[in-house]
Amino acid sequence: MNHWKLTLSYDGTPFHGWQVQPGLATVQGSLAGALQRVTGERVLPQGSGRTDAGVHALAQVASFALESPVPAANLLRALNHALPPSIRVLAAEQVDPNFHARHSARRKTYEYRLFERRACEGEDGVDGERICPPFLAPYAWDCRWTLEFEPMQEAARLLHGTHDFSSFAASDPERGVREEETAEGPNPVKTLLLSEWVRRDDLLVYRVTGSGFLHHMVRNIVGTLVDIGRGSLQASDISRILAARDRTAAGPTAPACGLFLESVEYDSRPPAD
Known about the structure:
Blueprint: E1 2-10, H1 27-39, E2 46-47, E3 56-66, H2 72-82, E4 87-94, E5 105-116, E6 119-121, E7 127-129, E8 141-143, H3 149-158, E9 161-164, E10 181-182, E11 185-186, E12 189-200, E13 203-210, H4 217-229, H5 237-244, E14 259-266
Parallel strand pairs: 3-14, 5-8
Antiparallel strand pairs: 1-3, 1-4, 2-3, 5-13, 5-14, 6-7, 9-12, 10-11, 12-13
Helix pairs in contact: 1-2, 3-4
């Protein structure tokens, strides 16, 4: 068997998430169908994580094994021809048989893009508000509030480090485990190596790198940080929210359209023979 690692980029708008679902368009299902058309083999590629409906990826990673001895360049070219335009394979490489896209991952980076509707002065001198362009709207939260950047940044930094993130986990964990489990269920203790806001062009972007993430964790964090930015909560409330270990203590879930899986990191491994 030849073991493969693919790096994928996709627009999550037309898909019901990563994981294959009967009768629904998913990224995993589309990739499996393309692999069957290209190689004649039925395989189910495993992703580094299960992005939800409407969530995008700049560099998702998938792994699988094939009997066909296909050159990497040929596989990449054939898959991009067979896949819909909303999914592109950026790289294809053979890997060690022990490599697994999810189990071998050491850290992931997500970014969340938010369009801030702050007040502005128009060309005619009349005060108004910034309008989110229609070509940006599917890929950012068109936030209707004026936000204070510094409290959001302060709160984001308070999330840095190792914490129990139960308050930021989806209230329906039975819908699927995103990371490792304890005997009682998904392990809520995660380590964030980066948690910060940056301004990029017309956007506020939340960047977060962690050892793992719970279901809806990033979107729940963003919803809470936005509540802080608009004054409904204070940055100092982060400690209380974490200590509560209760989803109702945190803010709302941010829309899926603004979330991107940016990268997945692995330990260096020798190339497969």
